[in-house]
Design a protein that fits this description.
By secondary structure, the protein is mostly helical. The protein has one domain. The chain has one helix and no strands. It starts with a helix and ends with a helix. The model has no long low-confidence stretch (mean pLDDT 93).
Length: 25
C-alpha cells in the first residue's frame, strides 16, 4: 500500500470515528 493510500484510509477511519462519537448521546 502506498503512503497516500494508507493516509486516506487512516483519515477515513478518523472521520468515521468522529461521526460515531458526535452521534452518540
Amino acid at each position: 500500500m502506498t503512503q497516500s493510500a494508507a493516509q486516506k484510509a487512516f483519515l477515513a477511519g478518523r472521520v468515521a470515528l468522529a461521526q460515531e462519537l458526535y452521534a452518540s448521546p
